[in-house]
Amino acid sequence: MLSSNEILLILIIVAAIFLILSNRLRTDLVAILVLVSLTLTGLVTTDEAVSGFSRSAVIVIIGLFVITHTLEDTGVVQVIANRIRLLGGTSEMRLIIVFMAVGALLSLTMNNIAAGAVLMPAAIHVGRESNVRLSKLLIPLSFGTLVGGMATYFTTANIILSGILQGQGLSGLDMMDFIPTGGLIVVATLAFMALIGRRLLPDRESVGQTISPRHLSSKLRETYQLDERLWEVRVPVTCKLVNTALSHSHIGSDLGITVVAIWRGQEAILAPEPIEIINANDYLLILGREERVRKLAEWGLIVGRENGYRNDRHDYSVDLTEVIIPPRSNAIGKTLKDLRFRNKYGLTSVAFWREGRSYRTDVGNTPLQVGDALLMVGPISKIKLLAQERDYLLLQSSHVHQPPYPDKAKWALLITGLVLITAIFDIIPLSLAVLAGWAALVLTRCMTMDEAYRSIEWRVVFLIAGMLPISIAMVNTGLADRIGLTFVNTLTPFGPLALVAGLFLLTVGVTQIMAGQVSALIVGPIAITAAQQMGVNPQAMAVAVAIGCSTAFLTPIAHPVNVLMMGPGGYRFSDFFKIGLGMTLVTFVVLLIAMMLIWGIR
Known about the structure:
By secondary structure, this protein is α+β, with helices and mostly antiparallel strands. Helices cover 58% and strands 8% of the residues. The strands form three sheets. A five-stranded antiparallel β-sheet has the order 10-9-11-8-12. Strand 9 and strand 10 form a beta hairpin.
């Protein structure tokens, strides 16, 4: 019979999961509400509620954000990406393995999302030069970053599991706990991708598959079906819009169409400002549906040049580029109109690609989602300006963000190497090592303190620190004991290895619909308690659950790095399941083998 405290805790957990999955509230806000609720209901003390902010695990995560940011800003990652172009050649299989392997390598020291984001422009460039479709490269890259996270301590879920062990008075985890088991999984999944997985990858044209800058424009117009939507509209002398600013013309607000450019005599005004005045005899390059564009005739404008039809012979000499909305961008959930995007950057978004479909109407009024690929038009100087913004990821290699401190790359690499060495050999506590690395990076001018603070994903920090009291409450109320005992009683006849297998599969299932960080916080205390009840090594169980948190192969929403690849790769949800099922099975089998050979669990 459940106690009142256990029932109350279950209700709080269910409510939190519902709010996270429904996207009604931000996850970091949900975490704060959970923290407050657990305290007010007496399930945890005030000190226990705020203890997450002082946990060494949270300090390590903060330090890793700073180190990852520095590796980007000093150009270390860009150098690695450039080397890939030399290693890959033109062989499709070779490129698939190279990108997956390098993704895994970078994830040993970097956040998975950051590793995927910095390698994606390189994949697009290499795919363009070698004529290998991006749908063949980006899923292997994404999965590579995930399996790489299994082989290192520097993965958020892995750090959380170590903290949960320590919170229960047990020894935590270190690099050597993950390298042998995770390393075997990396090798096995690379072999799977080379022999089987690559044959399951879709062979599909996708956004960004280009050969040259000129071909870029024509290919993007083809991908987004712009040739069916671009119209020329003449402004006669008698039109009521003459001498009216674009912002006051109501063309966009009333009809949901976009003025991409204005042809005025011999002048082409690309991405005209909202304050641009419409003159008599101007030609407006309009993007929108035919029925909406035709309504402009009722306003006194003439659609087409001489015969009322679109002029397909006109040279649309506009600079086009693609922009991806990365995870944790401040643009998520906002429309381009909310962001005042056109006023701020001087670029017009003429279409966007979401889940295998292009949209070309009401682009500015659509809330942005992670992984949206937006087609931008405007002067190249404005595109380069946008490339410096971290809220947007540009795919065109000529516009990729240039590192501000390339001369400090050696210092950044040396300091990161020292932090890794201290972690592997446990010379000093890891939380102290990453803080020392932070200080060294600032002292060597690889970054400033202000840049360090800006590099920290505070939403992730508050999510983890706010949700950690759930683990404490599960132990305090006895809920972890109860659920753990259920697993033990069910799986005892099949032996300790069956318990590991059962809890790993539970973790994988939870991870497909929730972040691995949240999975670690919910399943972690149950798994560790169950291990103690059955006499299984709790550190081994923690490693198995941590790897389950990174086994996010079955759906794109299982991990942000998968979502990031959706638009550029032209993927569908089914593509991830088709390849991810095999990856999950390989991970599962190799994990059980590692549990027997390395951890001695039978």
